[in-house]
């Protein structure tokens, strides 16, 4: 499947988002954290059995990526069924943003207070999000766009009203986010809430995360389609 410059290939245990050419990316991915240049982002679905021996998550992910010929990809890991991925897209003043998200909330947390209750499963469901914008960004604009993507993700999770340990969760302990943009001259300097980039990023991530969280809730209650 292709959407807004991203080709999506989902074959368990992998969900791979590929671009037609290299993209500048910013993330806290286990294998390629910080700024990187890559043409793919790859989710690896792990099981409880995998997690038992996962003393070095970054090393484990690098090895699995290499075995799948994805070593140059920015990698993510989740226990969420990668077939349950969701897309959001928004275009504002000709600038497009597309978000691809998987969400599992088995190890949900509330900001500012670590939960002492046990997670529902050994493997972390986590929220992993890729958001791609169609215009080049400066390093500062990358950081600003990431802050808005995190804000949108948090709003979507908090809206769901899911509780763990008595508190409404705002995310999970293992969330990861990737912002991607094409290289090019005259990159955008700003990506705040008042800009077209910021509006598009926020709307795309909000839409994808709302759908992903709703899907996870439906799976837990047996109401999934």
UniProtKB/TrEMBL annotation:
<dbReference type="Pfam" id="PF01955">
    <property type="entry name" value="CbiZ"/>
</dbReference>
<dbReference type="InterPro" id="IPR002808">
    <property type="entry name" value="AdoCbi_amidolase"/>
</dbReference>
<protein>
    <submittedName>
        <fullName>Adenosylcobinamide amidohydrolase</fullName>
    </submittedName>
</protein>
<dbReference type="InterPro" id="IPR052209">
    <property type="entry name" value="CbiZ"/>
</dbReference>
């Amino acid at each position: 499947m292709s959407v807004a410059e991203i080709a999506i290939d989902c074959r368990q245990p992998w969900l791979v988002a590929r671009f037609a050419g290299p993209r500048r990316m910013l993330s806290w991915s286990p294998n390629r954290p910080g700024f990187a240049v890559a043409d793919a982002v790859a989710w690896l679905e792990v099981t409880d059995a995998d997690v038992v021996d996962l003393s070095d998550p970054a090393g484990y992910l690098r090895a699995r990526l290499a075995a799948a010929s994805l070593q140059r990809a920015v990698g993510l890991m989740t226990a969420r069924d990668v077939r349950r991925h969701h897309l959001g897209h928004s275009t504002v003043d000709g600038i497009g943003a597309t978000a691809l998200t998987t969400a599992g909330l088995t190890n949900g947390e509330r900001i500012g207070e670590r939960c002492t209750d046990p997670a529902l499963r050994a493997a972390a469901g986590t929220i992993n999000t890729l958001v791609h914008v169609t215009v080049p960004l400066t390093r500062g604009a990358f950081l600003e766009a990431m802050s808005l993507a995190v804000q949108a993700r948090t709003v979507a999770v908090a809206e769901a009203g899911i509780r763990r340990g008595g508190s409404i969760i705002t995310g999970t302990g293992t969330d990861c986010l990737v912002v991607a943009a094409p290289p090019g001259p005259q990159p955008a300097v700003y990506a705040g809430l008042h800009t077209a980039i910021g509006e598009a990023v926020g709307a795309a991530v909000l839409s994808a995360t709302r759908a992903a969280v709703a899907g996870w809730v439906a799976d837990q209650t047996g109401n999934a389609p």
